[in-house]
């Protein structure tokens, strides 16, 4: 696992695609009637002592009924419970607060049970609200995913449609160098958790939250990368479209001896993801990765 996690952001106005929202926009909710349901809500993990006592605050400044009965943005709990697959690296990052830790879960008495945990590359949260970006469950051709929606956490407000996600200025360099990491998260069951703002229908990401737990049974993107790389190929170039991949030139290679191996996510169904791989300006293979088990089936070769 990468030594640091992912984090980032998205801020957007609920009234328009060109606006942005900050945590401060929701800071003055006031009355108990403005509180959200505490079950399966999203929280920031402010302080933790392993699986012992912890402090959680509601994402985006909303309120819940805390275990002691008061309505507030911040609650104290006696203990944390993590999913069974949260191993040492997970607990080290998630509960060690090396980045900003974001959890979805519920109170059971004075214990907080974590259903899903995310954390970021950098500790500073920034000032923008946290959103979950998802895509359509199917995609007939590249670029995939499509049908992008940004939903502000802990609200029932109608999600905002966007046309693309821009990672160029993300805090985490992994997403700057390879934005398709974010595409894979958008297409996953967890979705892409971020902060940032929208400009001309494009979500400009500040921070990305990477899923720590529960671990997916299969990651089609990683399976496709391994299938194409085979451990010996030059560094793999991942693009959003085949046309983009075929035009790519590696500035670090000799123009007379260029060898660019590339991979593109070209289609998706509820059960499979289709990829196209190639070398330089020619595609070489189209193959399908099953979302359950990651079995790979070649459907065309060139």
Explain the overall architecture.
Strands 1, 2, 5, 6, 7, 8, 9, 10, 11, 12, 13 and 14 form a twelve-stranded mixed β-sheet that branches. The protein has a five-stranded mixed β-sheet with strand order 15-16-17-18-19. The protein has a two-stranded antiparallel ribbon with strand order 3-4. It is elongated. Helix content is 12%, strand content 36%. The two termini are 34 Å apart. The protein has 302 residues and is mainly β. The chain contains five helices and 19 strands.
Short characterization:
The protein is mainly beta.
Q: How would the blueprint of this fold be written?
A:
Layout: E1 41-48, E2 54-58, E3 64-65, E4 71-72, E5 74-77, E6 79-81, H1 88-94, E7 101-108, E8 111-119, E9 130-134, E10 149-152, E11 160-161, E12 164-166, H2 173-177, H3 180-187, E13 192-199, E14 202-213, H4 220-229, E15 237-239, H5 242-247, E16 261-268, E17 272-279, E18 282-290, E19 296-301
What order do the SSEs take from the amino end to the carboxyl end, as H and E? EEEEEEHEEEEEEHHEEHEHEEEE
Q: Radius of gyration, rounded?
A: 20 Å
Low-confidence stretches: 1-31
Annotation field: number of helices? 5
Shape from CA axes? elongated
Arithmetic mean of pLDDT: 85
Q: Determine the structural class based on helices, strands and strand pairing.
A: mainly beta
Note the beta-strand portion.
Answer: 35-45%
Query: Multimeric state of these chains?
Result: single chain
Taking the alpha carbons of the first and last residues, their distance comes to 34 Å
How many β strands by DSSP? 19
Residues in helices, as a percent range: 10-25%
Report the biggest beta sheet as strand number plus sense, adding barrel if it closes: 12 strands, mixed
């Amino acid at each position: 696992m990468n030594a640091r996690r992912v984090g980032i952001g998205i801020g957007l106005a609920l009234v328009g695609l060109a606006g942005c929202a900050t945590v401060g926009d929701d800071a003055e909710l006031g009355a108990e009637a403005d509180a959200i349901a505490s079950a399966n809500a999203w929280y920031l993990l402010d302080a933790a002592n392993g699986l012992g006592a912890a402090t959680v605050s509601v994402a985006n400044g909303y309120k819940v009924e805390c275990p002691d009965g008061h309505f507030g943005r911040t609650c104290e709990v006696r203990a944390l419970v993590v999913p069974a697959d949260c191993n040492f690296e997970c607990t080290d990052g998630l509960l060690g607060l090396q980045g900003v830790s974001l959890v979805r879960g519920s109170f059971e008495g004075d214990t907080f049970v974590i259903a899903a945990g995310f954390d970021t590359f950098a500790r500073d949260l920034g000032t923008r609200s946290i959103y979950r970006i998802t895509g359509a469950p199917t995609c007939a051709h590249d670029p995939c995913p499509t049908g992008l929606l940004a939903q502000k956490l802990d609200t029932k407000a109608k999600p905002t449609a966007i046309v693309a996600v821009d990672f160029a200025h993300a805090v985490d360099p992994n997403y700057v160098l390879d934005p398709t990491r974010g595409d894979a998260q958008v297409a996953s069951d967890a979705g892409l958790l971020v902060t940032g703002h929208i400009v001309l229908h494009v979500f400009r990401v500040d921070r990305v939250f990477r899923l720590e737990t529960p671990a997916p049974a299969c990651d089609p993107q990683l399976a496709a990368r391994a299938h194409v790389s085979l451990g010996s190929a030059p560094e793999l170039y991942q693009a959003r479209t085949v046309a983009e991949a075929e035009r790519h030139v590696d500035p670090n290679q000799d123009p007379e001896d260029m060898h660019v191996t590339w991979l593109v996510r070209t289609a998706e169904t509820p059960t499979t993801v289709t990829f196209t791989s190639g070398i330089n300006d020619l595609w070489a293979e189209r193959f399908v990765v099953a979302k359950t088990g990651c079995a790979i089936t070649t459907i065309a070769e060139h």
